[in-house]
Amino acid sequence: MAADNSNLPPWIGTPPPVVPHTLISFPYEHVLLVTLNRTAQLNAIPRPQHFALGRLWQWFDEEPALRCAVLTGAGRAFCAGADLKEWDGINSAPSKSSGHGFRGGAAPDLRDGSNTRFPRGGFGGLSNRAGLKPVVAAVNGMCYGGGMEMAINCDLVIASAGATFGLPEVTIGVIALAGALPRLVRSVGRQRAAEMALGGKVTYTAREMREWGLVNEVVGDHQEGGGGGKGNNEAVVRAALAWARRIAANSPDAVIVSREGLNLGWEGVGAETATDVLLKGWYGRIEKGENMVEGVRSFVERRKPVWKNSKL
To answer: What pTM was computed for the model?
Structure first.
């Protein structure tokens, strides 16, 4: 099912899929803005929304005119994690109930490698996403549990000074199972990862996360209560969109392949193997392609390059 395309900009070829509790907009050419909008529940994500978001990120990768996305939250939270009320209801339901906990409809098609808890891309379709194109997190407030797992797997993280972070799963008897644990060790080291995953604190500040290497930029003045004021939300989204526009202004082919090279290292492939994979695979697809030719020619001619939408 696709969304109403009456308000789509003319440069978008196909309408995005419908995603509940989510605002989808196109603030600049080549840029997608996704806003989680379940404010009363601090943007906690119920199971059907995970699969809808997974379809959205797939559509984003397949839409030629889009080059970078920004994910943020409405209200005072980026995302507080899973919907625990829904989870408790599923735990209390008879084990033989149909739909695997999906109320009001059939269970999703799982032939793409998804499971009944998450789509293949993980929490919010994002925490385990590899994908083609970059996603920038604009963390406007509380970023806990699955919300933090999504942020850890984003390409850049821009955070409001009042935002707070944490993995509280152990405090309620569960674990961060959507991809954060191995990635957290790679990003911050074993001891800091253990502190977060085993201690369950939710009071880590944006500046602490920047010092630890999980946040690229901190925006605005600190406010008690986890940020999330309208001014802070707007400021952090503006900063994230500035990065998205900067990325989108570059060769879309070069961005995709550079990102793939980063992912090869991020997922534990050795540097020599990763370079070999790029040279024999992705690089061969862009070498002498129209964007590479245009980039070199524009430099020689001392003008701004005019990129074509990626065909990768």
So the answer is: 0.85
Residue found under tokens 């954060």: 180
In 3D, which of 113, 89, 110 has the Cα closest to residue 101?
Answer: 89
Task: State the first-to-last Cα distance of the chain, in angstroms, to the nearest integer.
Answer: 25
Beta 204-205 vs 156-160: how paired, if at all? unpaired
Name residue, tokens 């502190």: 195
Q: What is the DSSP string of 94-134?
A: -TT-GGGG-TTSPPPP-TTS--SSS-TT-GGGTTT---SS-
Any residues with CB less than 8 A from the CB of 87 and at least 6 apart, and which? none
- Span 205-256, pLDDT tens digits: 999 999 999 999 999 876 544 455 565 789 999 999 999 999 999 999 999 9
- DSSP-derived letter for residue 18 is P
Task: For residue 205, give the 3-state DSSP assignment.
Answer: strand
The alpha-helical segments, DSSP class H, found in the chain are 47-62, 84-92, 146-152, 180-188, 190-199, 206-212, 230-248, 252-266, 271-277, 283-286, 290-300
Q: Which two tokens stand for residue 94?
A: 């008879």
- Burial of residue 247, with CB atoms counted within 10 A of its CB: 0-12 exposed, 13-18 middle, 19 or more buried: buried
Burial class (CB in 10 A: 0-12, 13-18, 19+), 54: buried
Strand order through the sheet with 164-166: 77-79, 142-144, 164-166, 204-205
- What CA–CA distance (Å, rounded) separates 74 from 67? 23
Q: What pLDDT does residue 56 have?
A: 98
Neighbouring CB atoms inside 10 A of 106's CB total 9
Among residues 142, 151, 169, which one has the least CA distance to residue 78? Answer: 142
